[in-house]
Design brief:
single chain; four-stranded antiparallel beta sheet; globular
Amino acid sequence: RFIRGKQVVVWMFDDESGVRRVKGNTDGPVNCTDYTKANGGLPINHVNDAFEDTQARLWAMTSSGITIIDAQGKARTIAKGIFFRRGIQIGKQMLALTNTGLVYAFDENGRELRRIPIAADVNNIKMVSASFQWHGCWMIMTNNQTIMVNPKQGTAAATEQYHVRSGAVMEGLTNDDNYFVSNSTGILYVFPAQGDMRLLNLMQGVKSTVERFRRYNIKKGADGQYYIASYGNGLFVYDIQNDRLQHYSATSPWAIVGN
């Protein structure tokens, strides 16, 4: 996996090879730096997740601690020996989910602030399908439940109201506070920056296949509207401010696309 970071940096990581930092330069050459257990950059090569914070530092969630790599490329590891599955930044706090059902909260310098136990069946959070920030909370989606972590209140519990079974966040919408989540039902769940969750039933009664799990391709236009390309039901244009949806298909009187 990779993250397009700040300061012309691309971060690459996986569960076998550790982390690679690729930094471009104005004069052309590209510098690559690897962080592995062998060279002392990581406590273990198994990196489960990573995110870049507002200060261009990478927080790598490994199976044996969290490694923080700063903007200059210097690495250090905190919470050594703990298996971390996912991580996210919310405000000035860095949150990290363990495999035992605890959420660690750190400040921007990596100092532990608190540990938040999840009030749910932790056996159901081994496979996280989606992770994003919504209304100041960390949404963690799995096959069987969705966990809502509120760092201000120090709570973490399952929520039926916002559960999307095996939900996956649609990619390609960087620096966007509106999140689109899809699963095999064909329904597109919208988590807007303002207001409550919305449901767009764009593919009624259609089940996904393995190769089409990422059912929609979504791009935000210069006009602020979202253009949603589907696999089998044409193009949708969604005005999120006014919650209005337009549909263009091959059967439209003035068809502009095939399905």
